[in-house]
Amino acid sequence: MIIVTDLDGWPSTLSLPPEQRYAPAPAQLLHHLEQVNGHPAHSVQPPPDLEADLQQALIELPEIVRARLQDHFLGIYFVAGAGSSAATDIVIGPGGHFHGALIMLDVEAIAQRTANQWISWRENMPFTAGAHHITVRIADGDQDNRKNALQMLLLHEIGHVLSLGRKLVPDWWLQPEELGTTADYAFLSLSWEIAGQGTVRPRAENGFSGRAQLRYYNQPQLPSDGILPMYHALLETNLFTMYGAQSAAEDFAESFALYVHIVLMQKPYFVRIHENQRLLMQYAREWDDPRLAGKRAVLEQLLPDLPAQLRRPFAPLHGVAALMRRAFRGENMVPIATALVERAQAWPQDAHAYLDCSTVLQLTGERDIAMQLQAEALRLQQHYLLPYGGTQPALRLLVIMASGDLMANTPVEFLLEQGDVALELLYLGDEIPWPATFPAHDVLMVAIAESDANQPLLQRLAEQLASWPHPVLNRPEHIAVLSRDGAWRALAGTCGVLMPQTRRSTRADLASLAVRPESLSSLLPGASFPLIVRPLGSHAGQNLEKIDTADALAAYLARVPAQQFYLASFVDYSGADGLFRKLRVVLINGQPYLCHHAISSHWMVHYLNAGMDHSAGKRAEEAESMQQFDTGFAKRHAEALADIQRRLQLPYLGIDCAETPDGRLLIFEVDNAMIVHVMDDEQLYPYKQPAMRKVFDAFRSLLDQFSWRQD
């Protein structure tokens, strides 16, 4: 523990990315080392090539490890003469406040050694020189270099850093009377125990002969001919390495380092015992060893690295919400896709691998391949369970799904994350065998979105669910009217509502219109240019354009090869400031809730391209809109929203809308499959969490209301 009276002389690094947090050791650190070691250490500036190796070693660490280092990791400080390759400590600032943790790196110990040289050198330290020795391989070929030596050394020290304050093992500065009990520590209790007078000792099965004499970076205490029996004994324990057998803290640091190295980074770890040139023993300890299952579970909780988890054969379905959240944060999805592809290739009956991989590929824009993988998943299995964290769910929700992309179904997962509802998905379709019975459930929800392709499925489902013995949420016959032209017909005449007249048109119709503008009156009575044109079945603004003239329509048709289109009048809904505002509202049992309020200078408003991240003013307006929604927008349009609910009869419905300059509710789209989420950055959008919590609570309450009904 490094106690400083002021922080002025301490480098300020917390604003930097982890790979840039390094510097020569400051004077306060050198003073601390001299007090601990009894001899001075020196601050050094390493050569540029070593700095480059260090930086690259950190950059290559898994993203989850780097993310864990963002807070309170002060960085790496270069010394010479520290007495070990590296060490970890904490800095306590004025007033006894924790300032952060640091790693001291002795440049002399690592400067000239490759990865395998350094790890083998360390492994032999407790044993006197003799005929027996150990070699360890942690890198192959040209990867056996100094950069990977640094990486393994740093992973061990990072393990110490990340153990701080997490109740995994006792923090090293605690006094014996402060330790508590063995059960207080998730990792300690797996291999160690707190005995009388605050002594931490190995559990009986881990206390092999010679363990107490292990000394590293010190005079060796054990003869070299003891190497073989000690390593045989080590393999009978749940201690991963001999270095980790020294103490609970070192056990965690070693386990952490080798879990990241082997599981997350897919690198080798191979130990050999030799007598002179003769090989006596070799092993490659694996994390699949049942004796290590408890430790692996702790590390997986600390480092929820998705690619590693997804490599497991027949792992639970990860699901759309969890995967989309990672993509939304800008994470690299390629390792995730790679892990899933490799798993599907190795285990061709693993439907979860195919379905999750399909989701990832859709998120990365590989739709055609994604649909092929989804088809294979549904060929193998049509009933899927989403992970549920509890023991006994309060309610079982069966969601009926259709095959298709991420807009083909209501994204129910986002509405029920971390709740008490067991969520099960059942896929139906012409290419999927219709089950004789449905899985047991309390409430059935039809999530299938309206499309021309889904109309036969919705009709068949409506017939089957007509006298269903359990409550049905969002009946298929009501979903079937939600096409753009169907919704316009259903909402025509709604008081206070403007939904532009929308008609289906063939390519030939539009080609004729481009030549004879006067034919518009037969296609869209009472309309005039500008028009809105989009291909049938398109979403997210794909090939959606405002067409100002007949010539512009001809140019549009030359670019867009579709054969069927929606044609509608354009409504200028810009405000007095020239900006366009689009709201996403959900009706839950008729009650409106605001999910977003986007502001853009362009008439085609999508939240992700409206520049909300970059405008504090826009976010402030959205925050005010959410805060005042019930007494403002919802109250102004209460009659219109109630009429929409009566006409469409869907307990859960999304509406993309705006207000016209004359105060009417302008409807762009009504749909049961709009995405509603809370993935936005909480620091930029602190007001989103409470607003979306209302939505999620209302949906959960809706399920309870339906579960009590008898349809």
Could you characterize the architecture of this molecule?
With 711 residues, the chain is of the alpha/beta class. The N and C termini lie far apart (67 Å). It has 25 helices and 25 strands. Strands 1, 2, 3, 4, 5 and 6 form a six-stranded mixed beta sheet that branches. The protein has a five-stranded mixed beta sheet with strand order 12-14-13-15-16, covered by helices on one side. It has a five-stranded mixed beta sheet with strand order 17-25-24-22-23, with helices on both faces. The model has no long low-confidence stretch (mean pLDDT 90). The longest helix is centred in the C-terminal third of the chain and has 20 residues, at 688-707. Strand 8 and strand 9 form a beta hairpin.
Oligomer: single chain
Number of domains: 4
**What amount of the residues lies in strands?**
15-25%
Poorly predicted regions are none
Total strand segments? 25
Count of alpha and pi helical runs: 25
Radius of gyration: 32 Å
User: Mean pLDDT, as a whole number?
Assistant: 90
Outline type = elongated
- Which percent bin holds the helix content? 25-40%
Could you tell me how far the N terminus lies from the C terminus, measured between alpha carbons in angstroms?
67 Å
> How would a textbook summarize the main sheet?
6 strands, mixed
The class by helix and strand makeup works out as alpha/beta
